[in-house]
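dumping this here so i dont lose it
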């Protein structure tokens, strides 16, 4: 079973991830992990923290001479900002500094202090912070490394910010991948990108924040990952759950998603053809690469809706958790818009679920057996 846990507070010493279930013999390149960490940090609209951090992964276990051993792989990302928080976030010394007492609407703050019986909102926000997603991106880069051995590739792009929509419907996977990495917003449409940047500037001026929609694409998948035989083995279940686990995500859609609800069956599905040069194929991909809870061999396309970040410089109404008097919500340094970062996290989560599904289907003690199993399967089904 390929699985992982993360640990770490936003302003603690470091973020850590422990990954279990990787096959032995997978070559890991730290620069591939670091490249995705750097992509997650990018994005017009990010806050001051990204000027401080230079996220880099360290490998602490499970790898020898550049190859996985089959045991748990531990990755760590040090927080540079820790140097400014050593006292206020000290694991063992007595409390110091002012407690945060005014929860932000839309954040974990209020329910967190109720649930965990804390008197300082910082005890909640430190772990609830989206900084944790840096550890997931590092795990995702390892999952992508495994998938790349099977010629499976993943990218993502921002399709809207603050209601401004990109026109990218006719672009190929390769075009999206190339354009999005050149864009400050991870957006494949330069015209829309300029308007999005202006909207982010205006939101910053107002002390406001903006959400948006991103899309993740995965190509090269074999048919038959996941299964229809149980609800929790349907790949759609796992992909949607993984995307919804990203902080601030409020909606998820696979393929035509909500649009398909408005169509008759005759135009909602993807017809099946066979051509000697192409094998089995579908000229359309309305299903987003998933039918019956399984990959069907077409690209997997998943979209996610991100709400605006709840830390507002013009704060919303809240209460003081000590006096119960009305008070304005806490203002902390934060991002105006983090949709481009969330898109990179989305790639990581999709890669993790797909790697898990591949290992579940083909076994995962070592890479040699995995590759042999996949190649036999691909030959058998001719895809
Ligand atoms: C984040 C680091 C955080 C925020 C953001 C994500 O840094 P800091 O709190 O020190 O400014 O920029 O956190 C949130 C959006 C959140 O809700 O907590 C990061 O590394 O992505």
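and the seq i came up w/
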């Amino acid at each position: 079973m390929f699985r992982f846990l993360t640990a770490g507070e936003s302003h603690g010493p470091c973020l850590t991830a422990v990954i279990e279930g990787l096959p032995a013999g997978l070559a890991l390149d730290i620069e591939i992990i670091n490249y995705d960490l750097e992509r997650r940090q990018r994005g017009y609209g990010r806050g001051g923290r990204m000027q401080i951090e230079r996220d880099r992964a360290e490998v602490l276990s499970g790898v020898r001479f550049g190859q996985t051993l089959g045991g748990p792989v531990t990755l760590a990302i040090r927080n540079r900002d820790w140097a400014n928080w050593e006292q206020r976030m000290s694991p063992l010394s007595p409390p110091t500094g002012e407690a945060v007492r005014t929860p932000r609407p839309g954040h974990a703050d209020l329910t967190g202090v109720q649930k965990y019986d804390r008197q300082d909102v910082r005890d909640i926000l430190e772990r609830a912070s989206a900084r944790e997603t840096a550890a997931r991106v590092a795990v995702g880069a390892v999952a992508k490394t495994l998938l790349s051995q099977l010629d499976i590739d993943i990218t993502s792009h921002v399709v809207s910010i603050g209601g401004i929509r990109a026109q990218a419907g006719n672009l190929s996977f390769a075009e999206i991948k190339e354009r999005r990495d050149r864009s400050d917003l991870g957006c494949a449409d330069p015209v829309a990108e300029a308007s999005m940047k202006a909207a982010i500037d205006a939101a910053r001026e107002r002390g406001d924040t903006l959400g948006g929609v991103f899309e993740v694409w995965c190509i090269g998948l074999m048919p038959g990952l996941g299964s229809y035989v149980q609800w929790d083995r349907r790949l759609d279940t796992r992909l949607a759950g993984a995307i919804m686990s990203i902080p601030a995500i409020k909606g998820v859609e696979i393929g035509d998603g909500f649009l398909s609800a408005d169509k008759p069956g005759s135009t909602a599905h993807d017809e099946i053809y066979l051509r000697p040069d192409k094998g089995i194929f579908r000229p359309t991909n309305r299903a987003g690469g998933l039918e019956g809870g399984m990959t069907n061999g077409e690209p997997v396309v998943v979209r996610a809706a991100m709400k605006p970040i709840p830390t507002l410089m013009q704060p919303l109404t809240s209460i003081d958790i000590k006096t119960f008097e009305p008070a304005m919500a806490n203002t902390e340094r934060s991002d105006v818009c983090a949709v481009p970062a969330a898109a990179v996290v989305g790639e990581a989560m999709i890669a993790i679920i797909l790697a898990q599904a591949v290992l579940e289907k083909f076994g995962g003690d070592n890479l040699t057996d995995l590759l042999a199993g996949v190649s036999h399967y691909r030959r058998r089904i001719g895809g």
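The chain has a mean pLDDT of 97.
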